[in-house]
């Protein structure tokens, strides 16, 4: 009987402790999409990506030119010349493939470098608002972790105020590369 009473007491104290927890929520993707720094970072990332795209286009033009020249004179080439020209084309294709992979890695690194301070700023603001308003937990609705939430518990307006962001219509998240606050790739 004493064990049953002890177990019941522990269960009830756990329920009352949980009932005292205040939980808020935010859509971090919406927050990130309206932060001015995100647009600047996205513009910078696009410009960086364009430099690689321009170089890739130049390489593609060179490949097409070499292939057309090969096709035009293939019938009159000796086997040795054909082999050399085919190897040149294959080498260029390999360089293009390697360049494309390197470019993707560099672009991903650049995007991460640009977004990290923005994510940290958002995370710091979220944590600050949560502490100021007495929240024990903040859930992120952008990852679909909440089925129901009271609108009064949405801290996005308070975080926007903390960051000095005026009310603006929400943009469509996902149109530019972004990451969750507090996460790394």
Please provide a written account of the structure.
There is one protein chain. With 185 residues, the chain is mainly α. The protein has a single domain (22-163), classed as Protein Binding, DinI Protein, Chain A, CATH 3.30.910. It has five helices and two strands, in the order H-E-H-H-H-E-H. The chain has helices spanning 2-19, 28-34, 36-73, 79-132, 156-163, and strands at residues 23-26, 137-140. It has a two-stranded parallel sheet with strand order 1-2. Helix 3 runs antiparallel to helix 4 and helix 4 crosses helix 5 (156-163). The chain is rod-shaped, with a radius of gyration of 28 Å. Residues 1-13 and 172-185 have low confidence and may be disordered.
Write a compact overview of the structure shown.
The chain is mainly alpha-helical.
Write the layout of secondary structure elements.
Blueprint: H1 2-19, E1 23-26, H2 28-34, H3 36-73, H4 79-132, E2 137-140, H5 156-163
Parallel strand pairs: 1-2
Helix pairs in contact: 3-4, 4-5
């Amino acid at each position: 009987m004493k064990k049953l009473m002890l177990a019941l007491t522990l269960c009830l104290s756990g329920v009352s402790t949980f009932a005292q927890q205040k939980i808020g929520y935010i859509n971090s993707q919406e927050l990130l999409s309206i932060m001015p720094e995100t647009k600047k970072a996205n513009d910078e990332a696009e410009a960086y990506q364009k430099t690689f795209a321009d170089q890739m286009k130049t390489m593609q033009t060179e490949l097409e030119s070499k292939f057309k020249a090969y096709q035009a004179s293939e019938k009159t080439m000796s086997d040795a010349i054909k082999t050399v020209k085919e190897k040149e084309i294959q080498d260029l294709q390999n360089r293009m493939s390697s360049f494309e992979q390197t470019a993707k890695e560099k672009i991903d690194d650049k995007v991460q470098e640009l977004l990290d301070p923005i994510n940290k700023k958002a995370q710091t603001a979220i944590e600050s608002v949560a502490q100021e308003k007495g929240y024990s937990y903040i859930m992120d609705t952008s990852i679909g972790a909440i089925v129901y939430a009271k609108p009064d518990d949405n801290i996005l307006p308070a975080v926007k105020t903390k960051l000095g962001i005026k009310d603006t219509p929400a943009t469509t998240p996902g149109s530019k590369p972004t990451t969750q606050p507090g996460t790394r790739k």
